[in-house]
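Note to self: keep these together.
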Amino acid sequence: MSSLAFLVTELQSLASESRRKHPEIREAAEKSLAILRSSPEQATASLASDSAQSDDLLRPVFMGCATKNAKVVAISLGSLQRLIALKAVPQSAVTLIVSTMNDAMSQGVDIQLRILQTLVSLITNFPSIHGELLGEALLLCFKLQDSRIAVVSSTAAATLRQLVMFIFEKMVNEDRQESNDTSELSEATLPDGSTKALGPCAKDAFAVFEDLCLLANSEKPNFLKLDYLHKTFALELIESVLTNYHELFRKHTELLMLLQHHLCPLILKSLSDRHVFPLTLRCTRVVFLILKQFSFELETEAEVFLMLLIRMISEDSDASNQDHSGSRPIWTRVLAMEIMRGVCSDAELVRNIWDRYDAQQPGSKVFSSLIVALKRLVTEKPALLGVSAQMMGVGISHAGDSATPSGSNYGLDVGGVAGMVATAASATVSGVVGIIGSGIGLSVQNSAMKLQCIDQLDKADSPPIPEAYIYLLAVQCIVSLCEGFASFTGPLYTSIMVQRPRAAGEPVIRAPAALDLSTLPQDDPATQHLTIVRSMVENGWPALLAALSFIISTNLSDELFIDVLSSYQALTNVAGMLALSTPRDALFNSLSKFAIPSRVVSSLEFYVEPPTPRTSTSFTENLGLTTPIQAPGLSERNLACLKVLVSSALFLAGSLGESWYGILEALQNADYVLNVKASQASTNRRMNTPMTPNRSASAMSSAEQGKVARHPLLMDIDSESVLAAVQRLFDASKNLEDSAFQDFVTALCKLSSEMVGMQSDGSTLMESDDSLSPVPISPHRRRVSGIHLPRTLRQGDFGVERLGSVAMLNFHRLIYRAPEVAWNTTTSHLLWVMSLSSAPQSIRVQAARVLDEILTVVPRNLSSTGDLQAIVQRRVLDVLFKQIVPASSDVPATSTNVELRRMGLETLHQILQASGHTFVVGWGSIFEMLGSICKPAALSRSQSVDSISTVSLQETPRQKSLPLGYVNDRGYTALVKIAFQSLKLVCDSVSVLSPEDLRLCIKTLGQFGRQADTNIALTAAESLLWSVSDSIQAKRKDAEMEPEYSALWMCLLLEVLGLCTDARHEVRVGAIQTLFRAMQLYGATLTLDTWNDCIWKITFPLLDAISIETRRSASEPGALLNSGLATQSPEHAWDESKSLALQSIGSIISDFLVTKIMRLDSFSKAWSVFVTHVHDTVSLDRRNLSPPALLCLGKVVKALSGADASLQDKVSEAWECVWKACSDMGSMVLQGGRSQLSPGMNTTQPHRAFTQESLVALVDVIRNTRSISLTQMKKEWPLQRLNRLMEILKGVLTYPNSTDYRPDVDGLSPVQVVVLDAIADINLTESGVPSLILRDLSEFSTLAFLAAFHVPIPSPTSPATPIVTSSQKQVTYIALSKKVMPLIVELYMRFKDELEIYEDGTLEAVFSAYSIPIKLKYECPAPSKFGKDPPLWKTATTSFLRIVTDSVRRMAAFGDRISDTRVEGIWRQIIEVFRGGILADCTATESFSLEDQEAEESFDLSLISSLEIDLVPHLGDTRVPDHLIAQLAKILHKGSQLYKSNMDLSRPDSPSTDTANASDDSRDSHDFEKVDLNIGTTAPGVLVPRERFSFWCFDLLFLICSNVTSDQESSRKRVAALCLPTLLDRCKTTMVCYVADEALRGNMPFPRAREDELLYVLRKVLDLQLWSGTLWAALSESPSKFSDSQPAVDVTLSPSALIADVVKRSPVAHIFYFYSVLCEIASIPRKTPSAWVITSSSPPETNQERRGNSLQPHIGDVEEGGDAMEVDARTLARKALQILGKEMGAI
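Structure:
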């Protein structure tokens, strides 16, 4: 419905209502309705003009208002309101309207309310209402506002506000129109008395506001006709105007002048008078507006107000004296604080305040005073605010809180039991504090007002104000200030430093530096404001920090705690952004104290886990509490502080500079609490979540318990998340600029240095080889941050650890930035920590680990291009060098130092393993590092010939331990092992090394070769040096580089040479093998000059050096070559080394002798030196070195065979030199053999005894030498040299002092083999040589019988005293005899036609040799141990018989060419052999079986047969002396004895022995003594062992005296003549003894053998046929002369003599000789012996070819073809007598 329709309705109502009482009104109303109905639009338009219709339309309205009828008035006012809304009222009617409403004002409430509504419509719809009219309209409102009816008053007040606002709005519109029409302006008098032309609206606004100010000050208004207005309402209107139109005021000086002259004094007066809550409330609100909107325009007034407010805040009032006139009520402070909170919330205002007041000189320090006042206010009642238990940490004692200021640097003085008690009760005490503190403290819920005091305009008195409310306001003020700083600075900082335009290629700035305001445009407002903020923070931070640090430690709610913590963060960030290092550092320091309370650390250091739950609950049970015991730790709020600390540090990372130190120190402590100790303390902790303690009741609310999301600062504050945040801070180091990163690293190093230094200084760290023993430091010593130094030193350093992680994140800086950025600082610090001997071991090792990780990563990530590669590599190696190589020799070799070096070496190994192939520099450093590990060996025993002094040979006996340069500690061994692994890597890529680097490599390898670890030394000497040699040789192929690399190779050989005399056998062996393997492999490519160097600088010095060692030990007492000790002794090891050296040298020289060495100019000298070395080795060293030395020589000599014709002179010279040495060595052998016969000779040097092996080697050298000689000379050596050769060989063969004899029974020993081979090599065609060989071989064959001996075992206590044991070795020469005896036969058969072997006594020597085993017979040694070889005597007998058979024929053939002396000698030896064979002791056969005995006798028959067949025919040679032939007869006489001779009956075992052993002719006269016929015996006698053989000898004796053959008749006759006396004596003795014994025995029978013997003799006598005249010749003075022919019978003799002479010439003359005894036998009266015998079927004289083996051994054996007959002695004797009678012609 339109307003016109409403107007019509209103008029109709008016007409209806006034119909009866006021008809005139009805009529007027109807008229108006008619006008409206007739033409509504026209009517409406005419209403706005002063026309007649307008009067008609308004008339009913005015008439109605004039009535006193309330209803009519109300309708009329409603209609008027409609008209005004339709703007249907002319301007001229406005005054009437105002007057009408003024008149109707006294009506009821509804009328008054209608009036107010109408006034609003009127003034708002008629802007042209100005001046007095406006004043009257406003006066209506003021009057109604003063109504006691609340609704009217409040409505009027609201209407007034609306109208006043409209007035100022019109002024705003007027200003916008900017009309230049001056006609509308009117003068207005200003408060200062001046005038100003103002527009209508401006003047209205000026007048209204001026009157409001005057009314508020109880002054008379100028514009309003009002006597009185409530000050509170006036102030409210003023506030409304200022609130909405402050911009208008700032534009118009007249309005500002009102503020300055009227309002400000008014407010000051009001605030200075007695305080009434409503008035003061409104005044402070206006003050806030003035400060907020007009502080610039009203600078002085604002300053006054601010200082007033600050003073109000600072005044501490007592609530009990509120009514006292001199004091301010508490609510005034609250109001002031609420206003100040608003001021502080306006950051720009605060900045302006500083700029206008504090920044001016002189000027009021408004801002400074404000924050000081806030600080004082906050701290005035600490008991009210309480103490935050959380801020002190959890699990600590608070007993000392009241006495100790918050943030004190002093921790708990805990010690011993007190410390444990305090720690155990810590959580309980914390619980008590929490309960007591509940209900106090600050929180928005409990401390704030639901409606702030300054907004409570409806209150006549101050509302109840919580006691802590003002402190909450103070906190909020401080928070607002801090946030204001940050909200302004932060965005500008970001835009300037981070988001600024970047040049091409410029990286994104992720960690900007602080703002440098001097670089910004100074006229830029932003710069100016940044400067203001900087000044504010710079001047106000102490108070702000003090306030914040106090507030945060109070019992705050989580919300307030977050606000305060955010303020901390904001203020810190602002200080950092604006480069205010001092406040920033102070804030960080404060934050760190709250993040890591000192008591937590100190309590944690002394925390002791409660032994039992019962102990821990005893105290809490007494208090009725059940809080569980916790280990000291950080609360949520501590962690939140720590989180903020980390966050701010991260934000300001690019500008912290030296301030990093404090931050890092705090992070170190946090890491310690959260990470290290917390994990230890929580092992057996009963709490599941010790790091999230329960918050106190004051900090808890139902809203916080899950209903409201927690603030981000209180989220993720578990220890893991916080530690992750800390880690992110360190991770962010990669975003720092280089300078900032340098500061960061420097601070980290400084922190680490201080921490390490504090753990070192003032403490004595006793370090042993195995462990560290730290002495606890006094717990009262404090860290800079207030944290105690731990009672027990921390295992590792935070700074060192983090330095390592930061370096890993920023390794690109280490590589590609200048070393000053981070490299120098980092590495220098780590090296310093490592070198600090007083620091704990764990920290030093940690520093080493970090450094090594850095050094490992950098080369791996280094680009391989550009010059940077070499620079960085050098940088890395220089640092590693300082770690590995001690700074000085004074650095003790403690276990820690060794470990640090070990880690450095491992790092070097890793670097080489990953990046060694990329290294272009630094090899010298690498080798020096590796070499520094090698401890120098003791004065090298054999470095070179020049280094050996004669004094060293006179040392006392060496200890068997390692040399002085070696140590046995495990740490050093580990170092060497690790370093050696690196060296192996280097050697794997040795091809990349330059010659100079190779030289260092070789030197280093040599050092490792001298180390204590044998495996390492061996590998260095044997493997690595070899690989280097291989590499060098590969590079020698380049002709240009050949001289340099050849010299380098010689350097390598010299280094290896130094290792060849190492104290350890294995190393020596490896070095020697390497040395000669290299020469062997590359010798063919070496030049003669290089070979010359190899010979004179390598080979001979090696032999010299090793020889000194071997001879040094050889001269020491006790250096015996004992079989259980020698292999373990150092002496033996040295010998083995020299043996290897000799073998290697032999191989090298033999391989290159012809092609290289013999072509050297110095060959002759070198050969002489070489042979001399071998000779000296044999003569001066122990004998176990002789074989390898001689083998070496032999091998080299053999190589001479490959020389061509041009070298034959050198060959001749060479073998002559060798033979001379061999001859000398042979002399030593011969001397050693003779020493056996001279006990005083060489007995003090048993080690000089030649071994069999060395003798074999010596013979081999001789054979090789002879081979070369014979090849070159094409003829055999002269006899003189051969004699010397055989002399040496004989000495070798018979050498008695060896200790290593081999069995020589079943087979030849090696020495015997080579000696025989050497003899076999001799060419026997030269004169005298066969004799020489046969003589010596003959002598060899006797060794088994003459020279066999037991090998002496030296006594351990007395080497010269041999010990005889059952297990002794024996040198038997048996196999040699078995070999030589047939060999002699062969040689004889080969040279039997050579006269010289007969003439020079050779054959005599041969027979003499054979005679020995034949004589010994069964006493010869066994021919074999395991085989069935024939006995030696049988071999000798067989060989002898072969030779003697031919020799007698040869001698006969040679005839007179052989001298008589030689013939006699030969026959003497032959007879001697037969004597030995026939008369040998055969007692041993008695134990044989009968078959064996028979076989043995049958073998001996060969001797008898040979005598009969081969010798007897030639024995009668005229040059054979008579006594030799007679000697043979005596031998047969002795051999034919059946019983041992009577003179030996008393000792039956000895006669044969004596006889057999008799070898000289002087005993011949005693062999055939006559038996006295008058002596008889009944003793049975001792029968010889072989009865049959005796009869064979008897047979042979009869045979050689018988005429049985016609060949060699003359010779046989001579033999018969010389032997017949012996035969007659033998037969006569048998018969005489029988006759003598028979007389004594009577009828007692004779033994069988006696009877057989008697019968045998009688039968043989009967059968014997002599040569005619044999007996005569035998009995003559010269049997030989008359054997063949006798002189004629001398007839002049007497008959008896004549008969006797004739009978002696008879063939049976022997019977005549036995005549008397035959007569005795024939006349024996008793029964004589008898037996059955086999008689031959042929007559005796025809049995010419009878042989000795046809004789029957026993009587009774039937002869083949003969007859058996019984014979007896008496009959046979009578037959003999008959034959004699016949011969004499008597019968």
